[in-house]
Amino acid sequence: MPDDILPVGQQPEAPTKPSVSLDALDEYFQSVEEPFRETRDGLAKEGDGLNGGFIVFFIVSLIPLIPYAVSKLSWWYFPSILVSIWRIHFHLASFWFWWVAFFVVSLAVLLLALKFSGVSPDEKKKWLSPPQMRFAYCYAVVDEIRKYKTNQLARHIDTALEYLDKTSKSLLPRPAFPIDFYPDQYWQRQIQLSREQATGLNDAVIGPPKWYRLRPETELILKALGEFILKLRDRLKDRKDLPTIETALTFLASYQYLEIPELSDSKSEPRFEEGIQSLVNFARQVTSLAPYRSEQVKVTPEEKLSRKFVAFISKVTAPFKHESPLVVFFSWLILLGLLISVGFRVALPYFGIKMDSTIITMLVGGPILGAITAVTIPRVVRQKKDRG
C-alpha cells in the first residue's frame, strides 16, 4: 500500500478468543446440521442440472440415419399399413413419419425433463440461507478436524478438504468487488469514489463487503483471503498444523456467525466491530503461516496421457460451454450441420431417396433448430435455479 495514499499505523491487538463463544458456535452448528446436509444435497442436485442424455437424444433425433433405419425395418413388419390423421395420409414405414415422430418425442421428453429437473421451490424453502451456508461450511471443517483428532479416520480429512474448498469459494464474492480489487488499487479507487459521491456524480455504486473499507486491516484481510487455499489446503491434506488451521477457521466462523441476519442485527455497529475483530484475528493466523506445498507425486506415463486426453477434450468442448450465446450457437450449428449432412450423404444413395426441397429444408433447418435448443436449454436451467 503506497504511503502517500494512507499511512499504515500499528494494528490494534485482537483478542485471543473469538467474539462468539465456542459453546455458541457448537450449539448453532449442531442445530443446523440436518438442514445443512439437505441444502448440500439439493445444491448437488441443482449442480447436476439436466441429464445430458435427454439433450443427446434430441440432437440425435435430428440426424436422419436412425429414422432411415427404423423406416426400412418398418417395411418388413408393416408393409401395407396406412395411417390417416385428419386429411393427412402417410405410410407407417415412411421415413418422414419416423423423423417427425423422433423429433416430437425427443423434444417432448426434453421439455418434461427440464420441467421436473432440479429441486422444487418447496424444498428450497427448507434450505439454509447463503450466510448460514458460509458459516456451516467453515465450521464443518473445524468439526471434521476435531473428529479426526479423536478417531484418526482419514475420511474426516477428505470431508474437511471438500468443505474447505467450498469455504474458499465463498470468501470473495466476485460481483461485489471492483476489477481492480488489489489493496493499493483499492485505496485509489475508494478515494475516487468518495470524491464522486461527494459531488453527486455516482449515487448508485454497488458496495463491496462491509469489511472492505479505507482501513489498514483491509489489506491484511485481503492478503489472508488470497493465501487461504495456498496455505491451508495442503497442510490439511497432509495433517500438518491442524490446531492452527482449527483456530484460524474458528475465528472465521465467528465472523460468519455474526453476519447471519437471522440471528440478530448483523448491521449494528457493535456487532460489526466484533465480527471485524474475529476476521482480523483469522487474517493474522493465516498470514503468519509459512508457505507450504505437499510433496508432488511423480506422474506415470499413463497419467500424463490421460491428462493430455482430458485437456484435449476440454479444448474441443470449450466453444460449446462459452459464456457468449453466439459462440455456443455457431459451435452447435457447425457440428449439427456436419452430422446431418454426413447422415444424408450416407443415407440418400443407400436408401434410394432423391434430393428435394423437403430434404434441403431439413438440411438447413435441422442444425438451426438443434443449435437454438442447445443454447436455450442450459440458460433456461440457470434461470430456473435463480428463480428458486
Nutshell version of this structure?
With 388 residues, this protein is an all-alpha fold. It has 14 helices and two strands, in the order H-H-H-E-E-H-H-H-H-H-H-H-H-H-H-H.
Plain-language structure description:
- There is one protein chain.
- With 388 residues, this protein is mostly helical.
- The chain folds into two domains: 52-117 and 301-387, no CATH class; 131-287, no CATH class.
- The protein is 69% helix and 2% strand.
- The chain has helices spanning 22-48, 52-62, 65-77, 95-116, 121-124, 130-151, 154-171, 183-198, 216-237, 242-258, 269-287, 301-317, 325-351, 357-387; strands spanning 82-85, 88-91.
- It has a two-stranded antiparallel sheet with strand order 1-2.
- Helix 2 (52-62) packs antiparallel against helix 14 (357-387), helix 6 (130-151) runs antiparallel to helix 10 and helix 7 (154-171) runs antiparallel to helix 9.
- The longest helix has 31 residues, at 357-387.
- The radius of gyration is 29 Å and the shape is elongated.
- The two termini are 42 Å apart.
User: How much helical structure, as a percent, in the residues?
Assistant: 55-70%
Dominant shape? elongated
How much is the average pLDDT?
75
Q: Please mark out the parts with pLDDT under 50 across 5 or more consecutive residues, or reply none.
A: 1-15, 174-206
**SS-derived structural category:** mainly alpha
In total, how many beta strands? Answer: 2
* Strand neighbour order, sheet with most strands: 1-2
Strand content: under 5%
